[in-house]
């Protein structure tokens, strides 16, 4: 149990959560953004990958992970998951939270590597307090990550400059996805009304991802298309086209 009312758990190196069936629950108000039960690096720390979830069958809830550093890194990852069948509920992972990582093409908020059947519920992944200036991504999928489910999750970002060519979901190489990744009732919100730049594509996948991305009842704001040319044929949606009179907040994946 992490109590964040008066202080945060301050790390000096990566925390590898490597004990199966071990749970982490924050004791604070269950807000979806900026929970005060917080894990972060020291104020003067040089960036390191903050939290690794290598165990399986763990429950992590009501926790904020702040991936911002005084001395950042262009390759920083706030949360790396290699374990299987974990549940994350009401977790806010605020990666890309310093200028160096937000400006690094290989930096990520969450990276799933061979991670299978993990469930994210009511989580907020990303931040819109630091401008993303490079073509990076909130989520990276690699090494056959399979059947991960994101339900009612929020993906905020604040893109500027080269981040117009960035993504929310990125498949790193052939076979990055196994079976499916499901995004159910999720909101991808990029701050274009706060001087941000529209991001061209929500999803980027290699020519042979090995699986599919499924967007069910999702909304995108500040994106001009749902997928890159490779991603379109491997992305499936059920959202209606937008209409001024009838509603419908998503777009058809023809771009």
Give a written overview of the molecule.
By secondary structure, this protein is mainly beta. It has helices at 99-102, 229-232; strands spanning 2-3, 9-11, 15-17, 24-27, 38-41, 51-53, 59-66, 77-81, 87-94, 108-113, 119-121, 124-125, 137-142, 145-151, 154-157, 167-171, 177-184, 187-190, 199-204, 211-216, 219-221, 223-227, 235-237. The strands form 3 sheets. Strands 1, 2, 4, 5, 7, 9, 11, 12, 14, 17, 20 and 23 form a 12-stranded parallel beta sheet that branches. An 8-stranded parallel beta sheet has the order 3-6-8-10-13-16-19-22. It has a 3-stranded parallel beta sheet with strand order 15-18-21, with no helix packed on it.
H/E element string?
Answer: EEEEEEEEEHEEEEEEEEEEEEEHE
If you compute it from the alpha carbons, what radius of gyration comes out, rounded to the nearest whole angstrom? 17 Å
Largest sheet: 12 strands, parallel
Alpha-beta classification: mainly beta
Name the average pLDDT.
91
Number of strands: 23
Number of helices: 2
Overall form: globular
Helix content: under 10%
Strand content: 35-45%
């Amino acid at each position: 149990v992490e109590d964040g009312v008066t202080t945060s758990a301050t790390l000096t190196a990566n925390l590898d959560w490597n004990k199966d069936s071990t749970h982490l629950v924050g004791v604070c108000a269950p807000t979806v953004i900026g929970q005060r039960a917080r894990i972060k690096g020291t104020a003067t720390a040089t960036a390191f990958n903050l939290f690794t979830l290598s165990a399986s069958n763990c429950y992590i809830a009501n926790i904020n992970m702040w991936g911002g550093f005084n001395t950042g890194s262009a390759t920083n990852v706030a949360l790396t998951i290699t374990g299987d069948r974990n549940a994350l509920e009401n977790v806010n992972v605020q990666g890309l939270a310093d200028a160096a990582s937000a400006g690094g093409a290989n930096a990520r908020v969450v990276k799933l590597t061979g991670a299978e059947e993990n469930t994210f519920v009511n989580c907020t992944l990303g931040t819109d307090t630091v401008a993303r200036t490079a073509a990076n991504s909130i989520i990276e999928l690699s090494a056959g990550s399979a059947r991960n489910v994101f339900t009612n999750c929020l993906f905020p970002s604040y893109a500027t400059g080269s981040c117009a060519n960035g993504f929310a979901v990125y498949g790193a190489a052939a076979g990055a996805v196994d079976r499916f990744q499901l995004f159910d009732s999720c909101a991808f919100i990029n701050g274009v009304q706060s001087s941000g730049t529209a991001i061209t594509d929500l999803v980027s996948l290699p020519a042979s991802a090995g699986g599919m991305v499924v967007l069910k009842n999702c909304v995108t704001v500040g994106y001009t298309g749902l997928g890159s040319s490779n991603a379109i044929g491997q992305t499936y949606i059920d959202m209606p086209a937008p209409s001024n009179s009838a509603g419908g907040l998503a777009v058809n994946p023809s771009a």
